[in-house]
Amino acid sequence: MSVSDLPALNAALNSLSAILLTFGFVFIKRGDKTAHRNCMIAAFAVSTVFLACYLTYHAQVGHTSFQDPAWFRPIYLAILIPHVLLAGLIVPMILAALWFAFRGNHEKHRKIARWTWPLWMFVSVTGVLIYLLIHRIFPQ
């Protein structure tokens, strides 16, 4: 595996994270706390691997930018900017949700998870979309 393979791996990891988040949501709605816990821990692990791969890629390659087609760049930026902002915001929220869950403080866990889950899902899904736009639909 080379550095050039990392964007596709990152998209796969983001996709897997979104799938695990979806299953975790379904399981908690069904009352299956064990399956929910397992999915959410797996989503956290997958997202952690993603972050390591993402940082490795950008340490090697540097900044990537969307240039062409110029008409689509504003749409791309409208997706990228909230993705980046929420990606930074979501990390402490995920850690707090996990902390409260592991400590058995389910009320605080539920309160933060109501915000954390949709933001985490948004970041995962838009991460895949950004990959598709830069590397597959409009290769730069």
Concise summary:
This protein has a single domain, classed as Cytochrome c oxidase, subunit III, four-helix bundle (Four Helix Bundle (Hemerythrin (Met), subunit A), Up-down Bundle), CATH 1.20.120.
Q: How is the main sheet built?
A: none
- The number of domains is 1
Number of strands: 0
The secondary-structure element order is HHHH
**CATH-derived architecture:** Up-down Bundle
Look at the helices and sheets and give the structural class.
mainly alpha
Give structural notes.
- The protein has four helices and no strands.
- The protein starts with 5 loop residues before the first helix and ends with a helix.
- The model has no long low-confidence stretch (mean pLDDT 97).
- The chain is mainly α and 140 residues long.
- It has a single domain, classed as Cytochrome c oxidase, subunit III, four-helix bundle (Four Helix Bundle (Hemerythrin (Met), subunit A)).
- Helix 1 (6-29) packs antiparallel against helix 2, helix 1 packs antiparallel against helix 4 (106-137) and helix 3 runs antiparallel to helix 4.
What topology does this entry show?
Blueprint: H1 6-29, H2 33-61, H3 73-102, H4 106-137
Which labels suit this protein?
140 residues, mainly alpha
